[in-house]
Amino acid sequence: QVQLVESGGGSVQPGGSLGLSCTASGSIWNIKSMGWYRQAPGKQRELVASITTGGSTDYADSVKGRFTISRDNAKNTVYLQMNSLNPEDTAVYYCAARPIGTADYGSWGQGTQVTVSS
After folding, report:
1. Which of 59, 65, 79, 107 might form a disulfide with 2, Cβ 3.0–4.6 angstroms?
2. Rg of the chain's alpha carbons, rounded to an integer?
3. pLDDT at 64 over 90
4. DSSP secondary structure of 69-86
C-alpha cells in the first residue's frame, strides 16, 4: 500500500500561482507513475498531469504551458506548480499513484482545495 499526503493549495486571484506537493510513503518501490487529478463541483475527476519514475511527463491540454509537474525522488515527493491560474482551475486537487503493471491509479491523497477567484 502507498500512502499519499498532500499539502499546498488555497485561494488565489486570477493570474496568480500556487504550488502543491505530495509525499508518498509505504510501498513506494511499486510506484510506476504519479499524477495530479482535479474535480470541480458537478464535474468528473480529470487527470491534470502525470510523471513517471523515469521523469516523463504528460499534461491535460487545459493546463499545458501553465502547470508543471516535477518530482524529488530523494524526498518521495511530487510537486505541481500552477501558474496563470483562472477560475476554471478551481477544484479539489488529488495526488494519485499508479502501481507497476497496472493501468489505474490505485492510491489517492485526501485532496486539497484550490480556489481561483477575484
Report:
1. 107
2. 13
3. yes
4. EEEEGGGTEEEEEE-S--
